[in-house]
Structure formats: structure tokens, C-alpha cells
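Review the following:
>
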Amino acid sequence: DQTQIGWARVRSASPIGGSLIYSYSVGGTVLGEAGLDPSVPAENFRLSVDMQNDYLAGLAVANPNARPVSLSLTLYDSGGNSLAWSNRNLGALEHFAQLPAEIFPSYNFYNFTGSIAVRAPENVLIGTTLRFDAGVNVLASIPVIDSTTNPEPEILNFPQIADGGGYSTTFCLVNPNDRAIAAQLNFYRQDGTPLTMALYGRPAAGSHSIAL
């Protein structure tokens, strides 16, 4: 079946915690799995990129705002030297997931180690890095390097989800309150429109209500 990718947001009237498990399987056997924490919206953050030993690294960035955002991406080597630049626009709730070579096509990423700085002046973005081998037998997430704290404890933003074609995403949500809470889980396509996905046997939908 076809792989669907995008990003997800969990919204609650009360503080909520959680993470997700990003998996890849073939013939019912899980080959790779990685935990992914929520990404804190930030104007400025760096994504670590490690492509040694024939590994690949992909980055995912989403715009959680209700308005378009202009962003810049700068590639740095492990010594902090800037190597390449790229600018792009993301519409409201839009998302992209690409390999560094797709963002900076003029640079040779063989055995590359460094980082990518993402900047969106006066706006916020969310992002993550996924590291994997060519057969996706190994899958790991690399946290965003950011110095801020979560300004919205009632909102969890996950910059990359996938379902189908061997991929699956499991949400692990936690209620830290001493009372029951209700949360809304929304899925978005790369173009910002609702992404319909099934959840725990429920019919596919772009939004699911969850009681904790």
C-alpha cells in the first residue's frame, strides 16, 4: 500500500505529555524503530546530520502556524563552517521531509557529519532528523538542538509521521494531571490539508478525539 507522510499535532485544554514510535516493517517483521519526542516550536534551531558509514539522514520540518512562513536553511560542517544555503516558503500547516542532498544538491554528502540550521525570523517551526541505513534496517531519531522550553504544554507537535508501505506510527500519550482530560489528535499532509489515518481500529479520519 502507498506510504502517507505528514506531521501531527495533539491539542488538549490541560497539560499533556507524549511521544511517538516510528517503525518500518517488511512482511510483518519490524526492521527499524525509533522514538520521537515532540518538537518545541522555535524561530532558530539546528538539526544534527551524521551520514558516516553509508548511513542516510533525512530532516522533516513543519509550519504549525496558520500563516505562511519564510525560512532559511544553512549547512555547516563539523567544524562550524558554513557550506551551503537554501531558502524556501512553507504555507500554513505545510510540511516537507527531504534528504540533505535534495536541499543542497551542489554538495557531496558522502560520509558527511555536521548540522543544518533552520531559521524563521518572527515565526516558529518544528523539526527533527531521522537517521537510517539504505535498507531501513536501522532507524534512529536525533533530537533538535534548541535552548528554549515548551511554551505550550497543552500542545504536542510531531514533525514527521508515516503510514503504509511498511511504515507505521504509534502515539504514546500521557496525562500528567490528577483528573481525566480530553485531547484532539490532528494529522496534516505536506500541503497542510488534513491527512486521513486510522487510529486504534477507528475509521480513517483527519482528526481523532482521545480521552485520557
